[in-house]
Amino acid sequence: MCGILGLVSFDASALQFSEAIQKASETLKYRGPDAKGMFSSESVLLAHRRLSIIDLSSKANQPMSLKKEGLVIVFNGEIFNFSSLREALIKKGRVFSTHSDTEVLLHLYEVYGIDFISKLNGFFSIALYDQKRDMCYLIRDRYGIKPLYYSKQKAYTVFASELKALVNILPEKQINTKALSLYFHLQYIPEDLSIFKGVNKVKPGEYIEINYQKKTLQSKTYYHLKAQQTQLSYGNAQDKLKTLLDDAVEKRLVSDVATGCFLSGGIDSSIIASIAAKKVDHLQTFSLGFSDHDFFDETQYAELVAEKIKSRHHTFKMHSNDVFDQMDQALSYLCEPFADSSALALYFLAKKAKARISVALSGDGADEVFSGYNKHRAVYKMQTLSALEKAVWRCLPTGLPVRSSRDNFLSNTYRQLKRFKKGVVLSPKERYWMWAGFSHVNGLSELLATEQAVSKEAYVDYFNNSVDELQAVLLTDQSLVLPSDMLVKVDRMSMANSLEVRSPYLDYRIIEFVNTLPSEYKINSRYAKKILRETYKAYLPRQIFERPKKGFEIPIDFWLKNSLKEKLDYYFSPHYIHAQKLFNAEVLQRVYTKFLSANPEDSGRTIWAYFVFQKWHEKYMS
């Protein structure tokens, strides 16, 4: 796990950027505190920061090269099947000087060319320089677990693991208002865009081919999400799932440093920890809770699981004031606006865990693959409604004098019912976009001072070719929510603490298999993630399966109305809004008034998104 960056020159002037690239690599030091290196030529610069996980020797440092073949690589991530690939390459006559997965990548490319990507089981962002072919490749893993930004300028293309490493290399910084509009709807920026004009992300399952002699840059897709239904019986599907998940966990336990598991007390992480505990003696597990907000504290369930699987469990209790005191530090690791508040909780969990381990397994990805979100339950319910029931839902009043918010069970339930009612009258595509975002809150679509025509079509394409609405929702979640939200917070907050996080559910074999299963294997009227629950119900305490699903959240609304109120008032002042020339002051004030009322609904999400954006703007634009 590391940080990479570099530059490809179209006019053989790369060396003039050497000092800038070296300086930029310092901004990624926390991603790789163990070693640093740089390769320089007239056409290509490659820099690397290393977090040593596999083969801790200096021979495994990067950039790594095969000089005879004219290949140089910098690589961020892990290849979990590198041992078997290495053995196969040795049989083909390849000679290795390290036991690292990085060297395997070089030999794979030499033997198979760019098609080597299809042989990889892991997560990665790769920059590979082929001197003989005048080519540099930027490659990202199938699901976007590891980040990779790039920007094509007239004389060069520059790239990095994080946007902050590019900021001082770019000739100018202009906010991409299309990305900003999507940010306020989704609370994150989709993976094809960034907050800056002219800076993009290599998309999941994509590689960029840069020919610096021809001065061309082409993007090519090597992997597509798809769903073709299997004929497997439910019992056989359960058996195959157990085999695949067991192997995925085992592969992700291979490490030359201390390894443990995040354990939230939910189903997903509990299953991973229970499998890992059978393979690792005295497995260490970690959970985080808030001592002053019971609604957001799930540590008692994690402790039940830890007792069941006999792990060495570490529970970290924090007061929300402790989190608040370090909030600015945590937010500083977000290189572009990102408003999923659970990222803060993950930051502190990673920080606590890093004191004892360097690799953690997590349950990330299970919700998007097995159907674990409230919107998945809502889609199932929508599909089973009769015409009469839909008519009744349309007639139900939603203007009742009942509090609607996220901060307790009753008000949150009413909030969800109101969102469900709005979805009844919409098409599947429109329903998804509404449930996935917040533009319906108090005219939020008019939030920006300059109106943006933002098309959602590129993000909901799976609805055009699917006869099953739930499958379309899951594929859209896997292509949009997973890489742009869930995996962003895991990468940024874990790497901020030099901790590698591995997610067995994101093994491509598991995702491809589960995507072939019919919807009734995943969800029914009783519960979501059906096959996952029923396959592993004997492994865990029954309370884990009976409890309601809760996110890994923190009391943001409470902070915004108390400790952050003074700063928030400043950001909402007419003078500040006018000087920034980005927002419609009238719409902003309407949302703020709603937030401070007795019935805030989802307005707190927008207020937090606005606050996070302004913190980012102060750091990068002021």
CATH fold name of the domain at 234-370 and 489-546: Rossmann fold
Q: Give me the number of helical elements.
A: 24
Q: List low-confidence stretches.
A: none
Mean pLDDT: 91
Q: How many beta-strand elements? A: 17
Oligomer classification: single chain
Q: Beta-strand level of the residues, as a percent range?
A: 15-25%
Summing up helix and strand content along with how strands pair, one would put the structural category as alpha+beta
From the alpha carbons, calculate the radius of gyration and give it in angstroms.
Answer: 24 Å
Which CATH architecture of the domain at 234-370 and 489-546 would you pick? 3-Layer(aba) Sandwich
Largest sheet: 6 strands, antiparallel
- N-to-C span: 32 Å
Characterise the protein shown here.
The protein is α+β, with helices and mostly antiparallel strands and 622 residues long. Among the domains are: 2-171 and 201-221, Glutamine Phosphoribosylpyrophosphate, subunit 1, domain 1, CATH 3.60.20.10; 234-370 and 489-546, Rossmann fold (3-Layer(aba) Sandwich). It contains 24 helices and 17 strands. The strands form three sheets. Strands 2-3-1-9-8-10 form a six-stranded antiparallel sheet, with helices on one face. Strand 8 and strand 9 (156-160) form a beta hairpin. The longest helix is centred in the last third of the chain and has 27 residues, at 469-495. The mean pLDDT is 91.
